[in-house]
């Protein structure tokens, strides 16, 4: 039985089923993976969902990693819970992404999907209840699993339960669009936890406001701003496979300056306005033509959703337009990479003169923290006020309203023109802020706080 449990939709490993029937394991990275490595694997279990056919086959064959328990949820239930509710409703609410004249629509179809979401959450709670030792600590992650704490508390009142939200939290007006009973179920589900963690004070305060608006008083929020481990990241960024990609990129861009961004192709990341700002920069400051290249890694994400497919196509089309408008025989103004290739992203980080991070709303955004740590010559950071990272980095970033394309274009110009000494000084301070709470400490702080708390009563 485990004394420390983590639950998240996406686990630390996934399986790819080959045509010959073989199963290949792919290990993921990220803050949670390095965070959990702070505790020994004998005492921990990570409960996650089987995401695709490869994962399901692994569960059927009994293939798995020690300490990882994959749940094989019926594919239609899973699709409704993950695509139909988590990514189309909760993600859109927390990031304020709805196209309001037409969305959202909460009808019978929505309620059918919500039942699947509830079933998927209950399956997680039951698996956790079965794996947890008496008094164990359970750290539940993100909007996919908002109903787990409440259900788990009913099943196992002895456990210490936390829930961490990696996204922003919706404003009360925005969350207020949900049907009343569903909103209450969501909030009560979360309030089954002893502690509710957020990346920034802003999102924690939004949760508290939403709970108060629903008449559910709450004092259990806590703020843990996830940072990066500077030594680990630099070690990764200076491996031979990254050196190779760096050399290839340098060859492609010559001695031009670079504006670097790295995102999933995600509606909230605001990639289109970023490209519009770059186009405006090349128009209003023609002196940068042929002297700068925009390296944009924008790898496809959540392609089961039509709005994401359309967005991915729009990003590619706008990049092409800019290249056609300004490009010359030996200068391609924007280079878009659609591969989820972390070594290539690290190579781009190393070459970054300017980092562009302009999400409309983002829980934290670790790219804003990673680029200053890795960049070879220091970089100027253009950062949106909508990123969680803004709270910690605002003093030394060039901050922008994510909707203001002209302001963003001007910030890019200032960033490109920043004197080297100022850039170095700012990068030093950005690096210090970015590495203040590395993943292992982030994880252990939550674990310690949870162990110090007496179990909370269920909200009445
Ligand atoms: C965000 C969420 C994570 C999620 C990730 C990738 O960072 O907070 O929970 O895993 O996006 O999205 P995906 O849908 O591919 O898991």
From TrEMBL:
Coiled coil segments of this chain: none
InterPro entries (UniProt xref): Glyco_trans_20
Pfam family, one: Glyco_transf_20
Disordered: annotated span: 448-460
Family membership: Belongs to the glycosyltransferase 20 family.
Name of the protein: Trehalose-6-phosphate synthase
Organism encoding this protein: Streptomyces exfoliatus
Top-level taxonomy: Bacteria, Bacillati, Actinomycetota, Actinomycetes, Kitasatosporales
């Amino acid at each position: 039985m485990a004394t420390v449990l983590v639950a998240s939709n996406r686990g630390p490993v996934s399986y790819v089923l080959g045509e010959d029937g073989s199963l290949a394991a792919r290990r993921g990275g990220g803050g949670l993976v390095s965070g959990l490595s702070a505790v020994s694997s004998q005492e921990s279990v990570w409960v996650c969902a089987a995401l695709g056919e490869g994962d399901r086959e692994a569960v059927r064959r009994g293939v798995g990693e020690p300490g990882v328990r994959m749940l094989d949820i019926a594919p239609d239930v899973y699709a409704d819970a993950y695509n139909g509710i988590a990514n189309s409703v909760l993600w859109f609410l927390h990031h304020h992404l709805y196209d309001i004249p037409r969305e959202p629509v909460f009808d019978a179809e929505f309620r059918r999907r919500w039942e699947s979401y509830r079933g998927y959450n209950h399956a997680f709670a039951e698996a956790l209840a079965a794996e947890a030792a008496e008094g164990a600590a359970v750290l539940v992650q993100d909007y996919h699993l908002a109903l787990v704490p409440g259900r788990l508390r009913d099943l196992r009142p002895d456990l210490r339960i936390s829930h961490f939200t990696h996204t922003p939290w919706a404003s009360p007006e925005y969350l207020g669009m949900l049907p009343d009973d569903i909103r209450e179920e969501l909030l009560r589900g979360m309030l089954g936890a002893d502690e509710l963690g957020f990346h920034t004070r802003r999102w924690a305060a939004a949760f508290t406001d939403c709970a108060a608006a629903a008449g559910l008083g709450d004092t259990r929020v806590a703020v843990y701003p996830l940072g990066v481990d500077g030594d680990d990241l630099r070690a990764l960024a200076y491996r031979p496979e990254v050196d190779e990609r760096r050399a290839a990129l340098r060859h492609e861009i010559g001695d031009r300056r670079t504006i670097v961004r790295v995102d999933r192709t995600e509606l909230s990341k605001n990639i289109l306005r970023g490209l519009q700002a770059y186009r405006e920069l090349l128009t209003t400051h023609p002196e940068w033509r042929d002297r700068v290249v925009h390296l944009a890694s924008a790898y496809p994400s959540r392609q089961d959703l039509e709005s994401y497919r359309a967005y991915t196509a729009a990003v590619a089309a706008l990049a092409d337009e800019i290249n056609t408008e300004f490009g010359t025989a030996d200068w391609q103004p924007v280079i878009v990479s659609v591969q989820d290739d972390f070594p290539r992203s690290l190579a781009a980080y190393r070459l970054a003169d300017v980092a562009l991070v302009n999400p409309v709303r983002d829980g934290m955004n670790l790219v804003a923290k990673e680029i200053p740590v890795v960049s070879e010559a220091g970089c100027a950071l253009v950062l949106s006020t909508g990123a969680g990272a803004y709270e910690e980095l605002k003093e030394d970033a060039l901050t922008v309203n994510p909707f203001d394309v002209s302001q963003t274009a001007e910030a890019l110009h200032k960033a490109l023109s920043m004197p080297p000494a100022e850039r170095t000084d700012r990068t030093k301070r950005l690096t210090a802020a970015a590495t203040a709470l590395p993943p292992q400490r982030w994880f252990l702080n939550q674990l310690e706080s949870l162990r110090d708390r007496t179990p909370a009563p269920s909200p009445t």
